[in-house]
Amino acid sequence: MIADFLFVYGTLRPGHAGPMARRLRAEARHVGPAWAEGVLHRLGDYPGFTPGTDGMVLGDLFALMDANATLAWLDDYEECAAHSPQPHEYRRLSMMVKTPDGPVAAWIYAYARDPSGLPIIADGDFLASV
Fold first, then answer.
1. Burial of 53 (0-12, 13-18, 19+ CB in 10 A)
2. Which residue ranges make up each domain of the chain?
3. DSSP β-bridge partners for residue 77
4. So what's the architecture of 5-129 in CATH?
């Protein structure tokens, strides 16, 4: 089953000026703020999300108009498509995120490598840390 929502926490958020953030805004409807349980790590000029109960990560929820098409180019962008070189840096998974209107199941790109030793974005808000 494919979720119709996507949770983004980094360079795909509406406050980021990158080309992929603009593309996502053009193809999906921004629903509003959302929070995911986990930790945000700094991976240079972009973040990586690790799910868990150690914190909350602020992001944005999008409703996907054409989930299959949007997720296909996002899988390519995040280099976790089946044809992407191994080992993948990210993996796409579905998890519950919190919104002002209640919990929602959404796709999220989680960091797939060992985060040990990576700096943590303590407040869980990537855009506030740049």
1. exposed
2. 5-129
3. none
4. Roll (3.10)
